[in-house]
What does this fold into?
Amino acid sequence: MQLPDPETLLAEITAKVQAQLQPNTALVGIHSGGVWLMNRILDSIKQDIPHGMLDAAFYRDDYAQRGLKTEPKPSNIAFDVTDKHIILIDDIFYTGRTTRAAMNELFDYGRPASIQLAVLINRGGGELPITPDIVGAEILLKPNQNLQLSQDTKGKLHLTLEASDA
It folds into this structure.
């Protein structure tokens, strides 16, 4: 399967995010890939927009089954989310559980006016009534396939498709 260029997808979602900006908009990236994307979007649009980052791992409803895959990253929301139009940014959308967890954590900081979800890729397989509002690409994968976004030391984004035997 030929994967799309993540840099091209990033340019597409940057334009879509920019079109959604209002005076009271804030961006929130979900660790790690969503934070990388958010930082690149902020660099591209060159506006002073409140922004923050979340690691929603502890808020997931399947935490007991999954545990922590990596060392947790600190969440940092240094602005009042109350009445803000939040654009939540993540890399790969799958079941919706990370998004739900991130929304739960956001509400610990206040009550946003609205939340939109921007993702680089929607890989299909949603389990909750949550869908992304802004999508770079729709790539339907089998349950045994996984997309991974990485960033090299120069900041270039890379997509890798992995498959398990299960």
